[in-house]
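Supplementary notes for students who missed Thursday's class. We covered one full example, reproduced here. Read the sequence, then the structure, then the short commentary at the end.
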Amino acid sequence: MVKDYNEIKNNIKDSGKLIYWLNEKGTILLVNNKKSQAKIELKKMKHISGLLYRFNLSFHTGYKPGQGGPIAVNIRTFEKTNSTITKVPGYKNGIIWISKDYIELRGWQEKYINFIYNIINKKTFQFKIGIYILDELL
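Structure (token representation):
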């Protein structure tokens, strides 16, 4: 069932679900559309500590060099200790692209966040030089 990409993009933007925070087990802790507000909320969560992953959805033309599609999931790793959240450098930070064909064919599903988490959480996976596209990694 082919869907219109622009309609899918608008639905994602309207949902306000642009930033996903996951813990080191892959559980989605928080979903919203503002990085700073999410960090404040996470700092208040006393029961959470350890590695956190931020998956930030952004939209592009998909035609510029370095773009693998119109939807980018920008992944950043953080460490939470007490009420402090700090960035963790390394090879688990990068971008996974979702191609226009893939999104039009399958639509947007939140389970893509879990797919991406499972990909980057493998011990052998590292972001290196290159373009990472979701359907090629599955």
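Commentary. The two ends are 20 Å apart (CA to CA). The helical segments are 5-15, 35-44, 100-106, 111-120, 134-137. If anything here is unclear, bring it to office hours.
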